[in-house]
Amino acid sequence: MPRKRKILREHILDAALNLMKEEGFHRFTARRIATHLNASTQPIYKEFKNMDDLKENLLEYVKEILEDKVFHLYSDQSDLTDVCVNYVLFASKERTLFSALFMDRELSVHSLHKHIQNTLHQIIQRTEGLEDTTEEDRQSLLDILWPAVHGFSVLTSQGIYNYSDEDIARKMGNIVSHSVKLYENKKSSIKRNLS
């Protein structure tokens, strides 16, 4: 009797993620994911109620990957500039996936952005010179910084910007330092007006 192959939840999520990397959501079906698994659709529907359930679980899986690979949340090595560079590099190297995540509207982009904002708050708290910022201060800084970084990433994923890794690092360094200066000037101005 041939041995049955066990397809785990992680295998399905990996296959779904690989499909997104290759094609985005244009042909995102259980059958296409099963083809990536070299299996039938049965294991998919055994693990997930329906395609919406699969997409919700895939979103959580993507959040974990972003925390680890882009934001390096579990490493004390990266600061705010490093994270911004990693985000743009992710958009550059995984253009189809980035577009699927942030521009196709198939996943809950609001949930993803909220998760990214929360992660960025944690990153700011461990960035030299910004460790003692309040939640309100961190959000004020992100209101200045993140539209520039995310916009730069979108333009990169669309192929409008084609910078080298070194140029991306330099540009993100400039964007972060200018954003921090704007944030500090805004904060000083508010203090002066209150005095």
TrEMBL record:
Residues 29-48 bind DNA. SUPFAM superfamilies: Homeodomain-like, Tetracyclin repressor-like, C-terminal domain. The keyword DNA-binding applies. InterPro entries: Homeodomain-like_sf, HTH-type_Tx_Regulator, HTH_TetR, Tet_transcr_reg_TetR-rel_C_sf. Keywords: DNA-binding. The keyword Cell cycle does not apply. PROSITE patterns: HTH_TETR_2. Residues 6-66 form the HTH tetR-type domain. Pfam families: TetR_N. Gene3D superfamilies: Tetracycline Repressor, domain 2. This is TetR/AcrR family transcriptional regulator. The lineage of its organism: Bacteria, Bacillati, Bacillota, Bacilli, Lactobacillales.
